[in-house]
Amino acid sequence: MAYDKNYPDVYMGYFNYRDPFTEKLENIYQNPVVIPIYHLDQLFNDEAMQTINRLNELRGKPEFKNEYDTLNAALVERDQHIFKYFHFIAAQRHVLDELKMKYRDFYELEHTLKQFEAIGYDVSKARETDLVKRKKQLLEFQARLCVHQYA
């Protein structure tokens, strides 16, 4: 199956629709890295893509709000497991600080753009260029962790 070539194939198209998990990033980094409970093939698979596709079908349909909320919560939980998986691998490969920096770079730009949007600025061009570039750098770094290569 061919996936969007913007992001490595290991993600099976998952990040074409989702952003890396960045909620409460600094709080998470206060805690030790934990052993993940899922493996890569359990995180990125057909089931995940079916959930994303169903979520997209339900978006904006108030009559399906409960199902939408349930699916979205499941995807947020999956996003957290993905985050934990790659942080564990990075710690094992002694590149955790570099991965954290890539997450922070992505988060800081994303957060800044949201603040500008909130006060009425059009940040669509920055999202299409700068944010996508940082997301791609982060995801490529993570993908290289899977094959024992480093940035």
Please give a structural write-up.
By secondary structure, the chain is mostly helical. It is 64% helix and 0% strand. The radius of gyration is 16 Å and the shape is globular. It starts with 24 loop residues before the first helix and ends in a 5-residue tail after the last helix.
Number of strands: 0
Could you report the average pLDDT, rounded to the nearest whole number?
A: 92
- Number of contiguous helices: 6
Structural class: mainly alpha
User: How much helicity do the residues have?
Assistant: 55-70%
Quote the beta fraction.
under 5%
Helix-strand sequence: HHHHHH
Radius of gyration: 16 Å
Low-confidence runs: none
- Major sheet attributes: none
N-to-C CA distance: 26 Å
Overall, the morphology is globular
Q: In a few lines, what is going on in this structure?
A:
The chain is mostly helical. It has helices spanning 25-29, 40-43, 46-58, 65-92, 96-118, 124-146.
